[in-house]
Amino acid sequence: MIDGERLIVIHFEEGDPENPMNWSKRQKWVITFLLCMMTTMVGLSTSAYSSGVAKMSKEFGVANVVGQIGMFTFNAACAVAPLFLAPFCEFVGRREVFLIGYGCFVLVFLLLALGKNIGSEIVGRLLSGLFGSAGTILVGGTLADIWNTKERGLPMSCFTFVAIFGTIAAPTYCGYIDKYAGWRRIESARLQVHMIACGVLFVAEVLFLKETRGAKILTQRAKKLRKETGDLSIRSPSEVETKSVKELLKKSTTRAVVLMYISLIIGCFIGFATGFWADKKYDDVREANGGVPIPEYRLWVKIRENSKYAVFEQGEKPVKVEHISEKIQHHSDV
Fold it and tell me: What string of H, E and C letters represents the secondary structure of the chain?
């Protein structure tokens, strides 16, 4: 009941076929495949640019460091955009964000391939990161929409694999192209091959990528029921609980900033406090070693565990020592 009005809130029933968790394994894997391929394409674009920076900068008559700004703008956009994209998923769902973001990401290839100056390349990289971020940061949540915790391991492993694979695969073939054909051929190859592949994938997503956010599906069902029955009291849980876009944006952005500063502050205090402890251990070990300092004990917190498994070569036979200080003391005695 809100403001004295009694509401009928609808939910998924057990076994509801519209609940993404109840979709068939085949349908879930189709969506997982589409999302992993999209992540791969974005990953390839992340690092492909770096291979031709030197020659591109020379052609445009700018310093190499100016050309590298394009790498920064891509990653900066990928870092900031999710703060604003995530709240919009609460209202429009995941499918719309995926399709709009990825569609614009494909079009940006034209700007990168046909750019006439360094400014167009830097702006293109900024837009590429902005739109491409949707194809990476929302995938984990989408997989959580359709796979239960027992089955989620393999799909998430596939996603993390392609996210890393894409970033390391591009320099391999782009470096070869840059060496023998120049940076323009990299962008041309991306325009002719990568853009076509991304375009085909985009069409497949339009056809087969369904909305996976349960709250959005229930909202669509509630709207349909209100239209069919004329009962305006029918609501979905998100319609009852969801705040305004302004509130969600504020919550999303401020939470990230607060957590960042809290972690930095806590880290500073922990580092400051453990510094005194580490100094004491360093002095104790130095005195025990006859006044000879052991530099490794500046990192005593890590050395304490790792050094227990240190192995040194003595002649041709490896010797495992209980503590690194024992071996260091042995060498100093010799």
Answer: CECCECCEECCCCCCCCCCHHHCCHHHHHHHHHHHHHHHHHHHHHHHHHHHHHHHHHHHHCCCHHHHCHHHHHHHHHHHHCHHHHHHHHHHHCHHHHHHHHHHHHHHHHHHHHHCCCHHHHHHHHHHHHHHHCHHHHCHHHHHHHHCCCCCCHHHHHHHHHHHHHHHHHHHHHHHHHHHHHCHHHHHHHHHHHHHHHHHHHHHHHHHHCCCCCHHHHHHHHHHHHHHHHCCCCEECHHHHHCCCHHHHHHHHHHHHHHHHHHHHHHHHHHHHHHHHHHHHHHHHHHHHCCCCCCHHHHHHHHHHHHHHHCEEEECCEEEECCCHHHHHHHHHHC
